[in-house]
Amino acid sequence: MAFYRAPRGTQDILPEDQPYWHHIQERIHGVAQLYGYRQLDTPIFEDTALFEQGVGETTDIVEKEMYSFLDKGKNPITLRPEFTAGVVRAYLEHGMHVRPQPVKVYSLGPCFRYERPQAGRYRQHTQFNVEAIGEQDPAADLEVMSVAWHLYEDLGFKELSFQLNSIGCPKCRPDFLKVLVEYYRGHIDDICDDCRRRLERNPLRLLDCKAESCQPIIDAAPNMREHLCDECAEHFQTLLGYLDSLGRPYTLSHRLVRGLDYYTKTVFEVWAEGIGAQNAVCGGGRYDGLAEVLGGPPTPGVGFASGLERVVLTMKQQGVQVPTLPSPQVLIAHLGEQAKLMGVKLASDLRAAGIGALISFGKRSLKSQLRQANRQGVAFALIIGEREAEAGRVAVRDMAQGEQHPVALEDVTTWLSQRLG
Asked: With contact defined as beta carbons under 8 Å apart, do 223 and 254 qualify?
């Protein structure tokens, strides 16, 4: 008989992997709060038009990857493929422009993209998102980048570095795109089919192509940083000066353009050792025109997103150890119905006192129950037989030492508390 499996591009996070997830999320909350970012949760689905307008109709996300459907009211709805458009929508909808600027928020939750699954990349993935909205200062770019750096450094990542570029603004980018398109038209017979489509619809994405045949063409392509207007050039140079002052390593890459239409000026990725050709553990940049696209006033913004699956993968490949999750340190073994009734009550009392306790189920032999205690890794087995039940006491076995101590039932909680801390 056939049995069901998780849908392609999804995964079950089993108990043995949960320590990574708990540790990463704990550090996310700690680092975000250290920089003054507050959590903002947006709906898991939004109006489809939000992403079509905000992310861009000619992006791979909108054209190929969104999970979109009509709800029962015939409204076009899309499962969240990324956070930023929804966060800016919330900023505008709730009048957050009247708050002290920039509004600094972070989000954490699932996103959905129909793309080819690969190492650390899933169709349902968990994303950590940071946004600073309402500030043009390149120091805001630096702070957002520093949040990412601080988190990965805190998690124990090795060989961190930034990949960095500026893709200009609506004033200077059109002239660059003319030069780029002219260059690519001279190589029209050498580029892949996807790039021929991008040449007409979204030429900046030509520089992001992963096809092997296009790599030499990208290497020799015009560089956007040579076509920046004075404002964009000054912004970028100021940011580089900040990074130099902090000693943060970075590589300038004219290939780095990101895959969403809303980016302007700064774009960046953080790379880490240990995940092969796909080195990036996060990516982001500035999106100064997004609020206007969504119907709001001109509002600068900068942020990044990081997939937690890739973070977990990197931690495993780099051999980063994480704390184990707390587990019960006591198992109650019982023989006979009266002893079991006493054990059920004792387990409840221990848990009420903050002591994690397991109780053996069924009617197994004492030997079998002690084997279970050993497999569970508990510190103490509390043994209740007929004699213990009649005398109102418990035989406490130290599983590490093999020693056994009689303890009066009313003293068990205090006795364990003193030894378990």
From this structure: yes
